[in-house]
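Lab notebook, bench 4. We co-purified these components, and the gel suggests they stay together. Before we commit to crystallization screens, I want a quick structural picture of the whole thing.
Request: model the full complex, all chains together.
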Amino acid sequence: MKSILCISRHPPYSSALAREALETVLAAAAFDQPVNLLLMDEGIWQLTPAQQPEANKQKSLARNLSALEMFGVERVYAHHRSAVERGLNTEALCIDTVQWLNDEQVQQLIAQQDHLLSF
Amino acid sequence: MKFTLVILGAPYSDSASQTALAFAHAALANGHTIYRLFFYADGVHNATRLAAPPQDEHDLPASWQQFITEHQLDAVVCIAAALRRGLLDTTEAERYQKSGDNIAQGFELSGLGQLIEASAASDRVLTFGA
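Here is the predicted assembly.
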């Protein structure tokens, strides 16, 4: 078994990368591979509460994020400095399974992985 | 070293595809093996056989196809990402009653499980284009 960390660095709806990163995490979990998701840079916008993508003819990504727990991905890691720099309120998010990591913890998380998939 | 390459960038709109192809050439030239090429997100557009770039420009999809055929590489295109973007093989064109198909020879439509399986089987997985 090899551990996979998907690093998602793009916002939820301006491109398909965030959705396709999440689908990769779900696929890995469905195949019982140890997998984690790290949101950083613009990727932290995926945690915004009260997303209304229907207005832009898109499906909710927040719903997929909250489905991760059911697939055995118990935590979603997120880079704290990315949120602070962008003014995202870390107390009001679309899911409650977020674990915030500082720079050093991000380094440690990355160092623990067999594979990184960067989206 | 056994590599799997994940290509996320479309030809021409993103340099990732060209970079990935150059890397793949260099890897083989240096005695490494490529376990799988996985075309995902906008990277699925590399699998088209209908690209018609101007004559003085590099035909990137054709270069991929030639490279894959020459080295008999396993080249998988994510089926969900491809169908959304209008990349179809004959089977899918028939299934969705579309008037044509455009996947080049050498590429195979399959699921994300192929990426997960390749990760388990490879020493390194490299993503290009995000």
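Chain A touches chain B at residues 1-2, 4, 9-10, 16-17, 20, 23-24, 27-28, 30-31, 33, 114-119 (CB under 8 Å). Worth comparing against the SEC data before the next meeting. Chain A has a mean pLDDT of 95.
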